[in-house]
Amino acid sequence: MMPTTRDIAPAGQQRKSHATAICAAALLIIVALGTYLRVHELGARSLWQDEFSTWHVSRLGLADGLRWQPAVKMAPLYPTCLHWLTAAPRPTEWLLRAPAAAFGVLAILAAFWLGRCVADWTVGCALAALVACHVLQIEYSREARSYTMLVCGSTVALWLWYELVRRPRGIYFAAYVLAATFALHAHYLAGLAILSHGAWWLLVMLCGPKQRRSLWPLLALGITAVLCTPVVLRFFCFRAAGYSGLEWIPALSWTRAWDVLARLTYGKVWIVAMLLPALLVWALAACRRWPHKLFRAGRELCAGTQDMCGLLVACWLGVWFGLVVLSWLVQPALIARYALAASVPALLMPLVVAYRFDRRAPLVIALVFVLGKAPEWFTTQQVRPGFRELVEYLNANADPQRDLVALAVHDTSHPAAIEGERLGFNYYRLERLTVRELYLHPLAADANTTLLGEPRALYVVVFQGDPVPLLESAGRQIIPLQAGGRSYRQLLFSPYRLLKASPPSPVDSRLASARP
Question: In terms of CB atoms within 10 Å, which end of the chain has fewer, N or C?
Answer without folding.
Answer: C
